[in-house]
Amino acid sequence: MTLEAFFFQNPSGALALSGGVDSSYLAWAAGKYGQSWRAYYVKAAFQPAFELRDAERVAALAGVALTVIEADVLAVPEIAANPENRCYFCKRLIFSAILERAAADGCTLVIDGTNASDEVSDRPGMRALQELSVRSPLRECGLTKSDVRERSKAAGLFTWSKPSYACLATRIPAGTAIAPEALAKIERGEDALFALGFTDFRIRLRGETALLQFNEAQLDGALARRAELLERLSPLFSAVAVDLKPRRASD
What we know:
This protein is of the alpha/beta class. 45% of the residues lie in helices and 15% in strands. It has eleven helices and seven strands.
């Protein structure tokens, strides 16, 4: 099945829009091939502010209405405790909120941007999607991440080259309780790195230390600018370290 055929068969519904590459292309396709699709963004402590701004831009470009839903993820003990399967509980909360709001808006079908490259075994959150009957058209149509980037570029979407950006909770080791103050520091630190021109990185919290991880293309530049990194990040973290092993794109 093609994506065009999916939206022909399902002319209306609700889509989860995160502002990332996959869901952004899905929103564009819904606007182009569908008839009356609505997008939903769940605003929570795990999402940095720029993701909402990107989602708003995408929705405007796609011509789909965007509804922003507030979710207190840290109010759920199974999420705040940060177990290995935290993503499962978080996805349950987020998509349950979308399903409830979408139903109130008259939408019975909810879709997300999972693509054919995503490994089900590595993503506990996918189990939540299956339990809630959320469909993944990109995956159903066999579209991989590379396919989505290529099609997004052809469609003129600014997200086509956007690096993958996992939620802020992934910066904290599993088993370490998540505090809102820690998330805020990580977000401010990563905003500082963006301001310095870096685009593909992570700040991992290790106790009071910020462990900076860069991809291979940016690692040498980061090491050469260590004085700038310390100047920007020292007010936020007790110690700053750079991981000498390049970060993999999937991390």
